[in-house]
Write a structure and sequence with these properties.
By secondary structure, the chain is mostly helical. It is built from 9 helices and 2 strands; from the N terminus they run αααααββαααα. The protein binds zinc ion.
């Protein structure tokens, strides 16, 4: 239940939003919260989502499918950009927590479907996918106003707060990830920082 709890809570939040859209007579006045609500739902869902591989038949623990930015990218393409951005941040926090095993053996290693464990490439896999998650968050929020981005920073801090207090035994790397994400969100000024710009900078 612990594993399903947060993804289920995220689904419940989306269901509440859809019900409000449909039935709440005051919704037009409240609709400005929609973006933040969806981002928070994604964040809550994403923090535990990678470990659903423990319950999906055919996947080994630390499957490369769930321990990657792929679920967030799929949601971005098929669903809503703000849930996807929240999900990407949640997955980035989870992956940075998974970067601190006691040793890089057995259950700590990333497993590709069919091919199996990628061995000592596992930390690199996790880092590349954390960067991919960051890229998604930047791209989605780069079009938002400064006020909206500040609200997203607040939501990120509050939404992740309980996780660090209650769940995370080794919070150092996830906290660094959160701090870096907040800096990025803050740095995206007037939509001028985008993945394309960062790419051009390094190219
Ligand atoms: Zn994991």
């Amino acid at each position: 239940m612990k594993l399903y709890g947060m993804p289920l809570a995220a689904c419940f939040m989306v269901a509440v939003l859809m019900a409000c859209r449909e039935f709440c007579p005051f919704w037009p006045a409240l609709s400005f919260i929609e973006t933040f609500w969806l981002f928070l739902a994604g964040l809550i869902g994403g923090i535990r989502l990678p470990d659903l591989d423990l319950r999906i038949p055919g996947l080994s623990h630390r499957s490369a499918i769930t321990h990657s930015c792929l679920p967030a990218v799929l949601l971005w393409v098929l669903g809503d950009a703000f849930i996807a951005a929240g999900l990407a941040l949640g997955i980035a926090l989870h992956l940075s927590s998974d970067l601190q095993p006691k040793s890089w053996t057995g259950g700590a290693l990333i497993k590709l479907p069919i091919l199996g464990s990628i061995g000592m490439l596992s930390p690199l896999w996790l880092i590349v996918n954390i960067v991919g998650c960051f890229a998604m968050v930047i791209e989605v929020i780069s079009g938002e106003s400064v006020d909206a981005r500040q609200a997203i920073v607040m939501i990120s801090v509050i939404g992740s707060g309980w996780y660090f207090l209650q769940e995370e035994k080794r919070p150092l790397l996830p906290l660094m990830t959160l701090g870096f994400a907040i800096l990025l969100v803050h740095a995206v000024k007037g939509g001028t920082l985008s993945v394309k710009m960062v790419w051009q900078y390094f190219a």
